[in-house]
Amino acid sequence: MKIHHIAIICSDYEVSKKFYTEVLGLNIIREVYREARQSYKLDLAIGEHYVIELFSFPNPPERPSRPESCGLRHLAFSVDNVEKKRNELMEKGLGCEDIRIDEFTEKKFFFTTDPDNLPLEFYEN
């Protein structure tokens, strides 16, 4: 039917919380601390659409390599204007790759990373 949400485990909860809410502008739906797991769970939305669960766990293993390791390759966000979004992120101190053109759709896109080096793509509608 559709993707319900994406779960991300971060290495530094406060840094990632700030990144996803203040840099990317996602909205907080709820935040809970789960004592039994020594873990925060932060539910995030784009507008009214629930999209990401951000987790913290004690000592999570690092991602083996990027971007060609097994598992999630990258997370892609749809935007109306790639140039504008890239400029906004760079003004907030985020390093962004150059804008490229998808050879199949001829749409513009670029990559950056979150605080744990998870590749993030911004793809123009």
Could you describe the 3D structure shown?
- Keywords: Metal-binding.
- This is VOC domain-containing protein.
- The chain has a four-stranded mixed β-sheet with strand order 1-4-3-2, covered by helices on one side.
- The model has no long low-confidence stretch (mean pLDDT about 90).
- The chain is globular, with a radius of gyration of 15 Å.
- The chain is of the alpha/beta class and about 120 residues long.
- It has two domains: about 1-60, 2,3-Dihydroxybiphenyl 1,2-Dioxygenase, domain 1 (Roll); about 70-125, 2,3-Dihydroxybiphenyl 1,2-Dioxygenase, domain 1.
- The protein contains two helices and eight strands.
SSE topology:
Layout: E1 6-10, H1 13-23, E2 27-34, E3 39-46, E4 49-56, E5 75-79, H2 82-91, E6 100-101, E7 108-113, E8 119-124
Parallel strand pairs: 1-4, 5-8
Antiparallel strand pairs: 2-3, 3-4, 6-7, 7-8
GO molecular function: metal ion binding
Domain VOC: 2-125
Keywords: Metal-binding
